[in-house]
Amino acid sequence: MKKEDKELKHAIAQDYETGEVLMLAHMDEEALRLSIETGRAHYWSRSRGKLWRKGEVSGNEQIIKDIFIDCDEDAILLKVKQIGGACHTGYRSCFYRRINGEIVGEKVFDPEEKYGKKEDK
Amino acid sequence: MKKEDKELKHAIAQDYETGEVLMLAHMDEEALRLSIETGRAHYWSRSRGKLWRKGEVSGNEQIIKDIFIDCDEDAILLKVKQIGGACHTGYRSCFYRRINGEIVGEKVFDPEEKYGKKEDK
To answer: ipTM of the assembly?
Structure first.
């Protein structure tokens, strides 16, 4: 199912202890409701067109400590305890590179081990 | 001018010292280029359909200390020194409320003083 971007809110996940920004994703109404109800981050995948619980495959889930909403109510900020790494590439944060390409992030898991080889994805 | 969302990158501004997430906005290619060249945050306003330098009216500019890009290159993380407050409502951060509406942010300026009365906006 394709959702219009106007039905989605941006969602920033931030480490609740260190303040590290981990990832930027999107939530539909159900993802936000499930996140609040279960205390685990749920998102809407725009590329796959479906609801998604962070860590459902990798185990790298996000335990929600607090949730904030911005002034115009189109962005959510989640303070989370990140299990393992947030990024599907194996880095702790999706923002593991400077804009010039320099890698500064910390690799914390092997994505092939978590998700299988690329052809199985 | 209306830009397709696919031409825009999400842009998160974060306080470079405290780690506080200040706002979520968008950048087109020119806004990113100008941000890099000038060291001051520029964004693309989706609602006004134009390029915008943060602080051009309010003086509350963002001095860029570092720029990161995410794994799939559709989101930017700016580490900034925020002059005054980031939010047009007068709060330091746009994420000044919990999802239940509780206000937890710090009000740092009077928006009427900075932008004029609502009818003049």
So the answer is: 0.94
